[in-house]
Every structure is written in C-alpha cells, then in structure tokens.
Write a structure and sequence with these properties.
Blueprint (H helix, E strand, L loop, with lengths): L3 E5 L6 H9 L17 E7 L2 E7 L11 H15 L2 E7 L6 H11 L5 E6 L7 H7 L8 E2 L8 H8 L10 H5 L6 E7 L5 H9 L17 E7 L2 E7 L12 H16 L2 E7 L6 H12 L3 E7 L7 H15 L8 E3 L11 H12 L5 H14 L4 E2 L2 E2 L2 E8 L4 E6 L7 H15 L7 E6 L7 H5 L1
Parallel strand pairs: 1-3, 1-4, 4-5, 5-6, 7-9, 7-10, 10-11, 11-12, 16-17
Antiparallel strand pairs: 2-3, 8-9, 13-14, 15-16
C-alpha cells in the first residue's frame, strides 16, 4: 500500500521543482514564467525509503468561470480530493501573500490534512516568510529549497505519519527511536571512512585499501546500535576544489555533498597524522551551513606519538577557525585496530539529541533575562537595544526568534555571546544554532506606526 500527496499553491512558488525533486526526474516542465503547469501530473515520489504517489497541480487562482484558469483550478480540486495529504507550498522569500492566506483558509475547511511548506529557503533567504507562515494556522511550516534539495529530512518526518502501517509493526513505527538516524561519514581521501564503517558494522561491507579515492559513490548501509536503526553513508573523499579535475571525481564529491545535505549528524573523519587541514575545516563549515550536527573523529590515533600536543593543536584550530559551532565533540580512535570506535556512536546519539532538542518558551525567557542582566545589550544607533522575549521556532537545528524593540541587526559580538550562552546552558555542543531577530509590535501604536 502507498499514500497520495498533492502539491498545491499559487503560481510560481516552485511546485513543479518540488515534484521533480520528489520523483527524482525532471518530469515536470519548470520555468520562471508563472503558470507553466496546467494539468495535474502524477509520479512515484520518495524521500529515502518513504514512497508515495505524488501529484503536481496548476497554480491556484481565484477564478470560477469557464476560463482555462478556472478549469485548471478544478483539476487541482480533483487532485486534492484524491489525496491523503496536501503540501501547501508558499514562497518563503516572498512571505505570505493575500492569495496564500485566501487559499490557506480554503484548505483549512477541507477534510484533507495539510502540511505547510515554505519553499526557496536556501540559507536564510526564507527566514521572514517562515515567521509569517506561523500565523496561517496550518501548523509549523517545513522550510525547504526544492531546487537545492534542502529540508527533505524535515519533509520526510512531516509525511511519515500519513504512510500506511502494517498492524504487526505499527507500534514500532510510532516510536521515534525506531526512525533511522541518517549518519554520514565524510572527510578527505584516505582518512579511513570505509574502514571505520566496516569496523562499526562488523563486516567487510566497503571496499578498502591503501589507495586514496577508492570510494566513488555515497553508499548507504542500515545497521542497528542497541536497537536503534542507523543508516550509515560512506562518501567519497573530498579534496580541495582546485585539485578535483576529473569528471568522475567531481560527480563523486557532489554525491558526498548531497549525503551531507540529507544526513542528520555528520562525522568528519580526520587523519591524526595530518590533523585538521584546511579542507577538513571547509567540510566542517559546509556541515554547519547545512544545519547538521557535527562530530569530529580523529582516526589513526595509534600513530600519534604526542597525543596531548596533537589534541591541543586540534582544539586551537577549532576554537579559532570554527567558532560558529563551539564545543564540537571529538572522539579519538583507530578504525583499523578498533580502538575507541565504541565511543563514537554514543557521542553521535548525544549530538542527535541536542540537534532535536526543543526548549520551552518559559525556560528560554528565564535564560534571556539572566543573560541580559549579566551583560545588557549594547547601544545601536545611539539607543539601547532591547530584547523583549525569545522563543524556539523549530529544531533540527535549534532555531530561535528574538523579539526586539527595533528588529535591527544585533551586533555580532553580542549575538555570539547569546549563541554561546544557549550552547552552554542547554547542552547544544556540536550543533548549529540559528537566531532570527523580529521586531515586537506595540499594541498601542496606530496602524500607520505599525506599518513603518
């Protein structure tokens, strides 16, 4: 059995791009010109092992006559009636438009469950649109970038409850601990990634050898650790872009980067004899930019003569060149001999717990009161920058909205102070933290003042 997903939204929000992303082929015509899609298109979609029938629909417009636009709308309504769940797509960069709000109200009155999807949210492009989307009353929005393949893990989790379940294993599926943990092992060539995976799973699953660059594809292996399913991704070694000159290697590196995008936690495996070179730090920054949890594994530790000196060098490089994810956990090991490998997965699971952490608004506001009392916000444009309250808008990675008096840019030094405070107070070591600033509305201000 499978289930049906309809992709719905106004024109030019990226519905066909999302459709192509889900089916894994360029089946739907995509162009910047709005209204390209006219009829509904069906395909077999999947995210990881979650499979479903997906329907691409024409852009919704407020037309009820016998025109082409009205017939397109009717096709969309038919698709919605056939579906088990609808993905209501909005443009995260443009925010919620009156047409979005209108069709959101219409969808709320239907019997079909709706998942609100904010598209075009690569990087921080959709921060404002995501915040506006909370007011639509359709639940927490799922931020994605259909073009770049970002946010698919969150979309997978949102769709999972609608997948049919066999009676025999329905209880198992409902347990969040039975959801596979997506774990990518990345690093430079010959760091020992395949050897580590073979050691973890206890069999020679990956081809290994002394030559650098044996692995070319991102290969996934399902494995259980103390009853928890873990999907391990072995990736090709990532060299500096200037050194990647063969087409096959370029494709392999691109495949490895996609594995990072789909992973939840990334283990950056580093050669202890060449600890934390420039390319290692580049990979770590890419992991942080993708919003994934990070654990650093120092492999070949048995070859290090002065462990204390090497560890001091590693921590110094992390402190000075990777300060945006302060406190990244480090595990020293030897994949070839098996030493220290048993410490890796408990550290990964701890990082996953922090990556998924949700903190109540009450706790956050007690924390912000304490932080601002110790170090009040600095002056901005000659005026005191006031933080009125803070709330967590999502996890994976932990993302927070700070409601301020002005909504302006928070000085970078004070933002680092708050991020480090969140990390230390709530145990968020090794995971990215996102802060979004919002201007608090004055309920006593006139309408003209509120629009300013």
């Amino acid at each position: 059995m499978t289930f049906t997903v309809a992709i719905i939204g106004r024109p030019n929000v990226g519905k066909s791009t999302l459709f192509n992303r889900l089916v894994g082929k360029r089946l739907a015509l995509v162009d910047d010109l709005p209204g390209v899609t006219r009829d509904r298109r069906e395909g077999q979609g999947h995210i990881a092992r979650l499979e479903f029938r997906v329907i691409d629909t024409a852009g919704l417009e407020e037309v009820f006559d016998n025109s082409l636009e009205a017939r397109m709308r009717q096709q969309t309504e038919i698709a919605l009636a056939e579906s088990d769940v609808a993905l209501f797509v909005i443009d995260g960069r443009a925010g919620v438009t009156p047409l979005d709000q209108h069709f959101g109200d219409w969808l709320r009155r239907t019997e079909v469950p709706v998942i609100l999807v904010a598209n075009k949210c690569e990087g921080r492009a959709g921060d404002g649109g995501i915040y506006d989307a909370f007011a639509m009353g359709l639940g927490d929005p799922v931020a994605i970038s259909a073009e770049h393949g970002e946010g698919l893990v969150e979309l997978h989790d949102a769709l999972l409850p609608f997948a049919p379940q066999d009676e025999d294993d329905s209880d198992e599926e409902e347990d969040p601990d039975n959801r596979p943990l997506m774990l990518a092992i990345v690093g430079r060539p010959n760091a020992g990634k395949s050897t580590l995976i073979n050691r973890i799973i206890g069999e020679d699953r990956m081809l290994v050898g002394p030559e650098a660059g044996i692995t070319r594809d991102s290969i996934s292996v399902d494995w259980k650790h103390e009853g928890r399913i873990i999907r391990l991704y072995d990736t090709a070694g990532m060299r500096r872009r200037a050194r990647v000159n063969q087409k096959l290697e370029k494709l392999a590196v691109a495949d490895g980067l996609r594995a990072v995008q789909f992973a939840e936690i990334v283990v950056l495996l580093v050669d202890a004899t060449q600890p934390l070179e420039r390319q290692d730090l580049v990979i770590a920054r890419q992991t942080e930019e993708e919003g994934r949890g990070l654990v650093i594994g120092i492999n070949k530790w048995d070859l290090v003569e002065n462990g204390a000196e090497t560890m001091e060098e590693i921590r110094y490089k992390l402190e000075t060149q990777l300060s945006q994810i302060k406190g990244v956990p480090i595990v020293t090991l030897s994949a070839l001999k098996g030493r220290g490998v048993d410490k890796l997965l408990p550290t990964v699971l701890k990082a996953e717990k922090a990556w998924n952490l949700r903190i109540s608004t009450a706790r956050l506001n007690r924390w912000i009161e304490d932080m601002t009392r110790k170090h009040p916000p600095p002056l901005v444009d000659g005026r005191r920058f006031k933080i009125r309250y803070v709330t967590q808008v999502k996890a994976r990675p932990p993302t927070f909205s700070l409601f301020t008096s002005s909504g302006g840019q928070l000085p970078s030094a004070y933002e680092r102070y708050l991020v480090n405070g969140l990390r230390e107070t709530f145990g968020l070591q090794g995971v990215p933290i996102r802060l979004m600033l919002r201007k608090s509305k004055n309920p006593f201000a006139s309408e003209d003042e509120r629009r300013k």
